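User: Show me a protein chain along with its predicted structure.
Assistant: Here is one chain, sequence first, then structure tokens.
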Amino acid sequence: MPAASASPAASTDAHYAALLARDARFDGRLYVGVTSTRVYCRPVCRVRTPLQRNCRFFSNAASAEAAGFRPCLRCRPELAPGLSLMDSPQALADEAARLIDLAVSEGRDVYLPAVAERLGVTDRHLRRVFQARHGVTPMDWLTTHRLLLAKQLLTDTALPITQVAHASGYASLRRFNAAFAERYRMSPSALRSERDDGDVAAPSAEAITVRLAYRPPYDVAGVLRFFRDRAIPGIEQVEGLQVRRTLAWRHGEAELQGVVSARFVPERHEVHAAVSPSLGPALPALLQRLRQALDLDADPQAIDSALDELPGPPGVRISGGLDAFEIAARVVLGQQVTVAAARTLTRRLVDAYGRPLDTGVPGLERLFPSAAKIAAADPETIGKLGIVRQRVKALQALAAALAEGRLVLHRGAPLAATMAALRELPGIGEWSAQLIAMRALAWPDAFPATDIGVLNALGTRDVQAVLGRAEAWRPWRAYAVMRLWQTLETGT
């Protein structure tokens, strides 16, 4: 896919064919700028298809904006799926882009030398490979993603414009207005007045609703089944196409509490997220974490082609979560027991240490215990819940490391250092570290080779043979795990 300007004729024909078909598989990887309107669109845009001679194709939104095009108000490029994560040296520029996007979503300043240092390269080298890969500078990329985030919040929510500016990374409303007008040739307030209200949920005092897109195919049934089989009464619900849960979220010095829900809309290849207004100040970070939890940025074409020898439906996703400590704690509680037994132990932990929460939603009335709460708890009292001593020790060591900041579990954490820190904790072996990396760090190549479900699905107890076979599945071995688990759950 070209990084910027018009493609060679053959590529242009292929891209135009994808546009004619409104092929959602190219969503987030192909954008079309229409020279007659100076607007750029996603390939799934529902407006009348422009003539091919008026189209210029781009591989990312930043390149389209750098060429002078502004985002379509109908298909809304800010909804498109983002980059998928690959642990590969060739993905340096993609990883830098992802770190920039993560910082934008969390409202943090982006300091490019710090990004380069995290990736182990020089600032100059990062700028060079970024330009070669994406066709724009890192700062152009940053500006585009800040403004697209702002556009989404302006369109989907009733948040005040000042709050939208701050959430998008602008400390000054004046600078936000100026950047918006320069790129989009309209003011933020004008955009809000021109939004297509037929595609936007009505503002509600009960929830802030935002749309998130994904690339098909997506195994909606498999993801919902995964969450349903592990749902803990009081903190989680799965009903129909919707997942709901309670959440406590640290935002600066404050702790925010509320409910987050995600409803799949398969016919639109979207998830409609609803967040309690009390969680509103952390909305960009929450949306980013929700994208990770539901694996909305995965590239199913690449993944499915690498796993075609394995049974299972297309579009399998890695099911993550919103609370990193909760994910890791549930992995520890699941050591050497069945899914049902792990669910029972987790429910007892929530009942004993989870704080009550008045949500107004029947069946959602508690929060998952915080790391600090579990770290400070009496080990013997935890043991009375039926959790064996070794796992109590592992659970409290994990909780203390997270509560004290010695361990950080999120998608932007450095993989090698985080895995090493996990392995140093008592009771955290390779199986646990790999599952935590898979579900909390969103590492697509995580592979718990000793997992009994994986071994059963492959019909062997020879771990070395499994590791050898799994080499063909790199860098998507975590998706292979999900497929293998599904064969046990569905009997396929």
